[in-house]
Design the sequence.
């Protein structure tokens, strides 16, 4: 057996690129693929103490619309649509902010530096 590891943050057409196995976040991009959930991808809202001291802490999901949110762009997912769950309730909030990136480490550093609120995988 030969293994080639290919890491990418862009959508990949698995059959066209001769990829046999892929680990993806979110829904399978193609209904012709056989997909099996292997783990939950729990996400948390994160912000630095300095940001929260300056801007206040959001108390409700809608409060996020008045904050600087750092948007992490992944594949073709709608950027800035954060799906928040509490118990059995789920709400989608369209957030905005001056900063967005497709690099998780950059987004994390921006949040740590106090530039806004980030939704990040646990």
Sequence:
């Amino acid at each position: 057996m030969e293994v080639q590891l290919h890491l990418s943050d862009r959508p990949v057409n698995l059959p066209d690129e001769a990829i046999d196995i892929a680990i993806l976040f979110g829904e399978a991009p193609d209904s012709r693929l056989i997909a099996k959930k292997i783990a939950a991808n729990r996400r948390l809202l994160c912000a630095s103490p300095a940001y929260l001291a300056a801007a206040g802490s959001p108390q409700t999901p809608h409060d996020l619309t008045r904050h600087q949110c750092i948007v992490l762009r992944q594949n073709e997912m709608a950027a800035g649509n954060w799906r928040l769950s509490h118990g059995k309730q789920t709400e989608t909030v369209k957030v905005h902010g001056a900063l967005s990136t497709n690099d998780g480490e950059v987004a994390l550093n921006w949040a740590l530096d106090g530039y806004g609120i980030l939704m990040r995988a646990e």
Observations:
- The mean pLDDT is 86.
- The helical segments are 49-55, 104-112.
- The beta strands are 43-46, 69-72, 81-86, 89-94, 100-101, 117-121.
- The two ends are 33 Å apart (CA to CA).
